[in-house]
Amino acid sequence: LPPTQRRHDAIWVVVDRLTKSAHFLPIRKDYSVSRLAEIFQQEIVRLHGTPSAIVSDRDPRFASRFWKGLQKAWGTRLKFSTAFHPQIDGQSERTIQTLEDMLRSCALEWTGNWDDYICLVEFAYNNSWHASI
């Protein structure tokens, strides 16, 4: 993604495996694990409480001692998808593919920063029909 005025250059996708609802959080690739934990607490835990389990890719930030310690303090099981087998977390992979399609279809209409509109994409995604529900 192109950097925005707020210097966001990535989207953190958080998916609730039960309801299929998703949060699309604009972030910077250089955010520290403590900054990501702060965002997670403000945007996810605040709305949904602490999760019972988190399935994550093997990003070094999510494999760090700090993140593992935070999950232990919250009582959350931390699971990692295996390398070269992202289909283990297929639900998130499908959500990311849908997000990419939605962003591509909206890109021509938007002027300015994509992070100004990501909340509308999240709203549209969460209010669309999902075959697996």
UniProtKB/TrEMBL annotation:
Residues 1-133 form the Integrase catalytic domain. The keyword Glycoprotein does not apply. One of its GO terms (biological process) is proteolysis. The keyword Hydrolase applies. One of its GO terms (molecular function) is nucleic acid binding. Keywords: Hydrolase, Protease. PANTHER family: RNA-DIRECTED DNA POLYMERASE, ZINC KNUCKLE (CCHC-TYPE) FAMILY PROTEIN. This is Gag protease polyprotein. It comes from Tanacetum cinerariifolium.
